[in-house]
Design goal:
alpha/beta, two-stranded antiparallel ribbon, 8 strands, 253 residues, 14% strand
């Protein structure tokens, strides 16, 4: 990787065992543009309570986060950093920073590729984005691909001249997938979970007041209770406990 090793140039804090780089919306867009113009492959990962919980259980995932450029995707991570005496500039939900990144890519003529989600979802998201950003050079492929079909996907990514790849599979699978295929990937990779569902309009964002209050997780639980109950009802207390233990140990954020 080329740029990830310089992640410390952005102020970093450690929250529940995971380093999180401090970015503003402007600075994360600038970093992704630099990644897209560099040699090698750099990976950006949004960190929330769920990511921190997985990292405590999975040594490989934790090590890959250490190699990644990270940003605070969850408000709980920002609150945790503040409690521990650190400081993160702001919460940067991937759903919020995706369009600024895509607009910057369009301005610089950098081709972008969406890979992941069910068939048709990424393309629906792309259609909506192309309507808003006419200069955007964006191709897509769904994520339900067998190992035997992957070479054709990689060929399509390369043929598009892709400089920025969004991979939407959920954690930790998406970060493992990126690590397994680094030699076939473009210079800037962002793991993005369910981003394409949100950009396609399949899922509706929380009301603005809930986002400002740090309650977007509750909105997501309300609209997908079966899938997300364990993640939030058990995961959130687990994250809080991990931050509390770090605070009691006096470990600097």
């Amino acid at each position: 990787m080329s740029d990830a090793s310089s992640a410390a140039t952005a102020a970093s804090v450690v929250v529940a065992g995971v380093h999180v780089d401090s970015f503003t919306e402007k600075s994360i867009v600038e970093r992704v543009m630099r990644m897209a113009s560099s040699d090698g492959v750099d990976v950006a990962v949004g960190v929330n309570a769920h990511v921190c919980n997985i990292a405590r259980r999975d040594a490989r995932f934790r090590a890959l986060l250490d190699e990644s450029i990270t940003y605070a995707d969850g408000q709980s991570v920002v609150w945790g950093a503040n409690l521990l005496g650190g400081s993160l500039s702001e919460r940067l939900a991937t759903t919020d920073i995706a369009e600024p990144i895509l607009r910057a890519a369009a301005d610089e003529g950098l081709p972008v590729y969406f890979f992941g989600a069910a068939e048709g979802v990424a393309e629906q998201a792309a259609a909506r984005l192309r309507a808003r950003i006419p200069a955007l050079r964006l191709k897509t492929h769904h994520g339900y691909v067998s190992d035997g079909e992957l070479p054709a996907v990689f060929d399509d990514i390369a043929a598009h001249g892709t400089r920025i790849l969004f991979v939407g599979m959920g954690d930790p699978a998406q970060r493992f997938w990126v690590d397994d295929h680094l030699d076939r990937l473009p210079p800037a990779v962002l793991t993005c979970g369910g981003l394409f569902d949100w950009l396609s309009g399949a899922n509706r964002r929380a009301p603005e007041w809930m986002i400002r209050a740090g309650l977007e997780w509750l909105w997501r639980l309300m609209i997908e209770p079966r899938r997300l109950a364990k993640r939030y009802l058990l995961g959130n207390p687990s994250f809080v406990a991990a931050v509390a233990r770090q605070k009691l140990r006096g470990t600097s954020a």
